[in-house]
Structures are given as C-alpha cells and as structure tokens.
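User: I've been trying to design a sequence by hand for this structure and keep getting stuck. Would you show me what you'd pick, starting by listing the structure so we're on the same page?

Assistant: Good idea, let's start from the same input. This is the structure you sent:
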C-alpha cells in the first residue's frame, strides 16, 4: 500500500491526527482538533511546508472535526486509517482490521479504560462515516505487552478475579516501547537483545524487552500503576484507599481523582506537573520541587532495576518521551542510582542530546550496557502496524 495512512488518536473532546506517507522522509501533516463540543473548539496544526495554522470550529463534534481535518490533507488521500486504542484487554495481541466483532471486543474492555476506550470508539464511528470506503485498523497500547508471562502479569488475587473479570497487569505505551526497542536493535551492534526502556512524559512507564518482545512493564491494570508521573501517583500502598475512606470519609471517586489528577510531580512539588519547571525550581532551592525530582528519578531507577530481572542479559537502557528525550538532569540522576549496572555516561553527550536528537550517551571505550536516547514515534509505529495489517490480513 503506497498511499499514506491517517493516524487518529481520539479523546472525549479532541482528535490528534497525523498523515504519514510510506516514505519516511515525506513531510507529515499533523494537528489537533480540541475542545470539541464547545463554542471555542478549534483545529490547529502544521501544513507540509511546516507553517502553523489555527481554524475555529465552534461547537463542532467529532465528525465535523474530521471533515475539517480532511480539508487540511492537501489533496493527499489516505489508503487506511489507523486508530490508537488504549485498552485491548486479552483480546488483541496485534493490530486488527475494524469490523463489528472488533468493536464489540473493544466495548467489553471499556470498564478497564473508561476515560479512553469510549472516546476511541467514538473516533472509529465518526471516521467510518467520513471515510466509509477506507480500511480502519485498531492499534492497541496494550498489545505489545501481551507477551508478558503469567508470573509478570498476574496479581496475587483470587483466581476468579482474573478468569471472570480480567483483573491482571496489561501495561501501556506499547507503541512507544515497541518503536524504541526495535530502533535500538537497528542502531546498536548488540542487536535486538535485552533492553530496558523508559518512556518518560506526563505519563511514564518502563519495560523490559527481549528480542523485540515485552517481558515485563511498570503499568498494570490501569495506567496509574508504576512510576511517579505528572499528576499520577504511581505505586501506593493498596491499603491507602481504605485508609483514606475510613479516616477522611473520601469516596472511591474522590480517591481516584486525587491519585490520578492531583498527585505525582504536581502533588510532591505543590507547584506544577511540568518537569521543566520542577527542574528550574529545584535548582533554585525549592524544597518541594527538589523532593519531586528526587522521588521521580529514584522510582524510575528502582523500576529499571526490578525489571532487569526479566532479561536474560542486559544490553542497555533507552530513554524516550518528552522528559526522557529532553532532560539531561533526569537521565544523569537515574543512572547515578544504578552504579552496579555498569553504565558509563558521557556528560557532554548527555547535555547535548535534547530536542529530538537520537544518540548513544556512553563514555568513549565503554564496553558495558549502553545508554541511548531515542525519540519515540508512536504515530509512525501506528502507521506501520496499520499498513502491515491492511497488506497482510489474517
């Protein structure tokens, strides 16, 4: 399939899109329709010349926004549409052509991702109306982690909670972990091997990848488990929920809101969920920001050390995501907490590797596990999986 793929990431009030050609050097048309359903809804993005635009879309719904996006494709007709779907449960181990049975399976996992899957389904419905003749492909955040063994994905809970209700660890950010680990295998002389991947942004997760297969990851049933994130707490004592309910009278929804939207870097610093500001304030001596940075880095290092147990051998660590790609401070602090792993960081290379740069950060002559920064390309990975699914349907 030589035609470009239109990648859609649909939220409850937004549509992020990218038109991705089969030629990786071709310019991408990308943008975001946001605040849908409101009077100040708008579409913003860049054209093929790299020029920015903003188009008001007052009170537009998803279908109207998609029609506006269609007008911004500069006459380039997509050959397929690839949809980011957050949760595929155990139904999907790879991308799938959308039909009624796939939609039904996505609906059954909605309880596991109530903020995401219904919005993703709305995007599929709207896109099928606008592009009724195009193949639609669902690409799942969870699919890459379906290679986890039971010892990694099972919680120590009664069997029925797993067999009847699907309570297990699923993992997320799969397209990112898949992309950067495969790219490391291409760049490094060590090949596919064993890689620890750290996707660090407003949402954060780590994974252990062996020969391009995920063997363990930090996120679990939901994206709340694992690392400290922008506004999410990551791991807490499971008894915390009962404690807050008994001592403070908080409801389940109140507790969920605090852990997902008021915690993480924001909760620890008391300032912001933006790591750039956290770093600036920490360097200026703000105690909350310093604590947030310390906890953030310590929890990443702790997670990477734990995940190394899943790998037969360790070939290196990969940093990606907005923070992983752009924060020399975080990379340096995380690696400093793992002295026994034999990493050797070149400080000059670390400081120079920001703003989308790809590079190896090892000291000259170092022969131990490698350190890489690899900018993630989740849209590109979704386009690749979409193209493969259309070209080689089961």
């Amino acid at each position: 399939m030589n035609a470009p793929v239109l990648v859609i990431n649909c939220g409850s009030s937004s549509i992020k899109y990218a038109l991705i050609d089969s030629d990786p050097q071709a310019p991408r048309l990308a943008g975001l329709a946001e605040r849908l359903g409101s009077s100040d809804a708008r579409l913003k993005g860049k054209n093929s010349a790299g020029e920015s635009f903003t188009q008001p879309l007052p009170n537009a719904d998803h279908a109207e926004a998609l029609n506006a996006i269609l007008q911004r494709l500069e006459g380039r007709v997509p050959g397929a549409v690839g949809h980011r779907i957050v949760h595929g449960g155990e139904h999907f181990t790879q991308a799938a052509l959308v039909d009624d049975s796939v939609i039904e399976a996505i609906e059954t996992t909605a309880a596991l991702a109530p903020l995401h899957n219904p919005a993703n389904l709305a995007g599929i419905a709207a896109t099928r109306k606008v592009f009724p003749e195009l193949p639609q492909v669902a690409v799942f955040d969870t699919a890459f982690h379906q290679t986890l063994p039971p010892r990694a994905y099972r919680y120590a809970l009664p069997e029925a909670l797993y067999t009847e209700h699907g309570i297990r660890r699923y993992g997320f950010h799969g397209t990112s972990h898949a992309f950067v680990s495969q790219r490391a295998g291409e760049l490094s002389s060590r090949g596919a091997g064993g890689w620890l991947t750290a996707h660090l942004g407003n949402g954060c997760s780590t994974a252990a990848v062996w020969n391009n297969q995920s063997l363990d990851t930090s996120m679990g049933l939901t994206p709340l488990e694992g690392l400290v994130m922008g506004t999410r707490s990551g791991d807490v004592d499971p008894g915390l929920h009962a404690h807050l309910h008994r001592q403070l009278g908080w409801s389940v929804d109140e507790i969920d809101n605090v852990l997902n939207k008021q915690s993480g870097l924001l909760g620890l610093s008391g300032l912001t969920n933006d790591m750039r500001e956290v770093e600036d304030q920490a360097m200026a001596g703000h105690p909350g920001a310093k604590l947030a940075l310390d906890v953030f880095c310590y929890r990443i290092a702790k997670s990477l050390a734990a995940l190394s147990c899943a790998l037969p051998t360790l070939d290196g660590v990969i940093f990606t995501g907005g923070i992983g790609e752009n924060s020399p401070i975080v990379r340096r602090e995380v690696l400093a907490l793992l002295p026994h792993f034999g990493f050797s960081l070149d400080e000059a290379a670390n400081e120079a590797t920001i703003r989308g740069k790809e590079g190896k950060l090892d000291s000259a002559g170092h022969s131990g596990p490698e350190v890489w920064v690899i900018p993630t390309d989740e849209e590109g990975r979704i386009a690749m999986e979409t193209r493969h699914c259309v070209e080689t349907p089961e």
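That's my pick for every position. To get oriented when you compare it with your attempt: The chain has two domains: 5-140, 189-378. The longest helix spans residues 287-307.
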